[in-house]
Amino acid sequence: MPIHVLRNLGLAGLLAVTTAAHADPIQAQPASPATPPAASAIPAHGVTRFKIGSLEAAALFDGTITIANDGKTFGLGHSPAEVAAVLKTNGLRPDQLELGIQPLLVRSGARVLLFDTGAGDASFARGGHIQASLRAAGVGPAQVTDIFISHAHPDHVGGLLGSGGGLAFPNAAIHLSAPEWAAMRANKDQAALAAAIAPKVIAFAPGAAVLPGLVTAVPVNGHTPGHSAYEIASGPDRLLYIGDSAHHFVISVQKPEWTVEFDGDAPTAQASRRALLRRAADQNLRLYAVHFPYPGVGRVKAQGDGFVWIPETP
């Protein structure tokens, strides 16, 4: 991932979670706290369907990112051997970390909602499959009515434009927080993207009810100037799309205070990450983690001084 872009987007704040607490009645499958389950197999068609109350949802496979365990990205201030020990304990390769890229699709009546857009043709990822996944889900790009951007890092906004530089989703309003939009417009590396999407952008105040009764923004600060998670509601049922509140399903969850290079303000991001995981564990929140093993739906529970990820069985 291009570190110069990530560093340009760093700012701080305090974690603010403004949504009401609702525990989804569907229980995640039990797992051994010491050994999180392995990643689910990625279907050839790139779509895993599930429900949020009465809403139809689907995990869309866009691609993956491989990051070397070299002391430069995850666990800064800790040796690669320390990171490797945690990975090995959980049955993972000790020399690298795998991140998924899975935007979320939600249908609500005439609205077709897309949460983040994947990496596009970014060189740091094996991505760019979101359009194929959408087609497999029975959705054409012109049918998407609303896009919710968690933050402006390239693995989340890379799919906003097509290969010719035009809007990939021509009829969609693009929602992101006002601080994130201001940072994106100020970033010279994203000038062309910002100019292209500007007519479609609807910036919101952090924590706003973006689509009242359906989508509420949840500020999770420290990663970027206006990083937002999103709570998606259907009656009493909730799903919290966490964006980059946590990147890796073992390291970020079991060691939430370990620094990751992608966070603009590491101390604030660490506090935000722990607070979100604590709330999720205490309230049994159902989560959608865009970078966890596909399809990224599950819960966390407390384990020692950290937490453990429990994926939901599709």
From TrEMBL:
SUPFAM superfamilies reported for this sequence: Metallo-hydrolase/oxidoreductase
Q: Which residues form the signal peptide?
A: 1-23
Query: InterPro entries, per this entry?
Result: MBL_superfamily_lactonases, Metallo-B-lactamas, RibonucZ/Hydroxyglut_hydro
Name the SMART domains on file.
Lactamase_B (SM00849)
Where is the Metallo-beta-lactamase domain positioned along the sequence? 100-291
> Could you tell me the keywords of this UniProt record?
Hydrolase, Metal-binding, Signal, Zinc
Q: In this record, what's one Pfam family?
A: Lactamase_B
Q: Which family does it belong to?
A: Belongs to the metallo-beta-lactamase superfamily.
Q: What is the name of this protein?
A: Glyoxylase-like metal-dependent hydrolase (Beta-lactamase superfamily II)
